[in-house]
Amino acid sequence: CKPFADALSHCGNFDTIHQDVDTQLESLLIAPWKASKLARCAEPSAPSQFLIIIDALDEIDGHEGFKFLRSLLNVIHSHHLQDIKFFVTSRREQALETHVNSFTDREFYHLEWVSPKEAQADIRTYLSTELPSLHSDDVEKLVTTAAGLFIYAATITKYLAKHHPQEQRKLIEWLSGAMPSHHSRMTALLDNLYHQILSDAFGDFEEEFLLHRQQVLFTLLCTAVRTSTLIVSQLLEHDNADIADEVVQHLHAVLYVEDNKVFWYHKSFADFLFDKTRSKKFWCHLDDHHRLLTRSCFQIMKKGLQFNVASIPSSFIFNKDNPALVTMVEQRISPTLGYSCQHWHYHLLLSMSNSLESVLKEFLQLHALFWIEAMNLMGLDGLCEVMLQTASKAGIQSALANHFAEAARFALYFSGSAASLSTPHLYISALATWPSNQEPCRTWRSHFPRIPAFENVAGNEMSLMTIQTKSGVTSVAFSSDGSHIISGSDDHSVQVWNASTGQEQKVLEGWHTNGVTSVAFSSDGSQTVSGSGDHLVRLWDASTGQGLKVLEGHTYKVTLAAFSSDGSQIVSGSEDDSVRVWDASTGQELKVLEGHTHAVTSVAFSSDGSRIVSGSWDKS
Questions:
Q1: How does residue 156 score in pLDDT terms, banded at 50, 70 and 90?
Q2: What residues does 478 pair with on adjacent strands?
Q3: Which of 22, 19, 18, 17 is nearest to 541 (CA)?
Q4: Is the pTM of this model over 0.90?
Q5: Judging by DSSP bridges, how do beta strands 84-89 and 504-508 pair with one another?
Q6: What does the pLDDT look like over 268-290, one tens digit per residue?
Q7: Dihedrals phi, psi of 498, to nearest 5 degrees
Q8: How many Å apart are CA 484 and CA 467, to the nearest integer?
């Protein structure tokens, strides 16, 4: 759609790729789609309707895929975009399904609703098309073997495609004869097929070379993001990507390359390799391999990071005003070094071992400072605090954990200040003004004796970040994961900020008609609540900034509002001397708690939600 592409190029804020999902969608989809409406209508050759297919987001590790999908669906639902529909596929997840059921414009279809005959007919058509040389009897054997499982049909097609017709028939006979009859038939079908594919790819190699190729495969599956064979090879300290390329080629039935990145066709292949009872001799021990990759990342950073890695000639220039900087960063920070800088914490968190403490101690000696420099040059310094905090909670001994937490505070101090606009000021401004009596910063400063020294720095109580607002701030709160800050202001608005960078993420405005007095996040971060001098409590969707509910009942200024720990209820206090409890899903008033004889100034739920405490100017 050229009108959309033009609008995206013109008004899309591509810097948002480093921000939250909602901000990305607002800038890169919603805004340009709305802006292109007239141009789309004026172009007679353009389709009148568009369909966006979103597949397999649920396959992202952990719960991040479903969290991402929820945010995506919220944004789509809240904007009611014209001339565009979204087709989303996902495994079943009850919470997500319940959430989508609340949407007015949606349709569900579950795979179990497909009749076995219909699934078999589709697989038969697919196999006949993809393997035209197969005899009809062999096609029927494969249809029966597939048992309605399309991923089996797709995988075996890729596997058979490079074999001679006579070889195909023998393989089909073998696979058909290996059909299990017990209740885990579908899993066993794939296991037999994956064992055959891996045996063909690796079976003829001596143990040393087999291990070498298995490590390549495991790394392809274990990286935090999909990567190239070159990055995988360098993470394993191989001279070139020849062996990795060969592994991908031999595993063409389960792996493919797109945009120079290696992907797998279906998550069932990774699940198979990570389950020892299923993959047996091909098993990938996740803890061990992530430990290997953690060490590799730190080793690559040790070799590649250094002071002033991009050879910036002066501290009197902002990064954005240095025309040579982008080229220098690309030359000095290789893709593999960039990967290591961005993802070492991912592998550390999954390695589940304290055997890495010596590596972490060495990293903190000095290279952690060079790492912050490199992350700033890549525009990713906002991630440093989160990554260092992750390391501090990775089960390491307390003194080392404290040093990582201190480094995290320093990283936030730098990324949230104007010093981050010019990389050299990491050293001459941020490090110079940070308390010198705390490790690891004390050691860092000793390596740079010529930077300015300040004698009256305010110790641990100094500010880590200052966020400037347009109006007086009356209330602030953190999200439960510490990633966002919410603030309420005299100008009637509620604002959401990135806690690592200080960047404004959302402005929630238009609903309050007086100064906001209280703000809070729900425990899962999906909603926010605000109280105001307009006597109202308002509920917002934290991801989209859309107003959800208006809670009416107070007759004077609302002084405070808070969620219960499970997010199901809201409690509010007011200058009308009352405490009120609300249903967070419907906005209905559940209870009015009376007894105070003066304005209520504070309210809170107990952790289990069974009790409420309130404070008042009536001295009780």
A1: confident
A2: 485
A3: 22
A4: no
A5: unpaired
A6: 888 899 999 989 989 999 999 99
A7: -75, 120
A8: 13
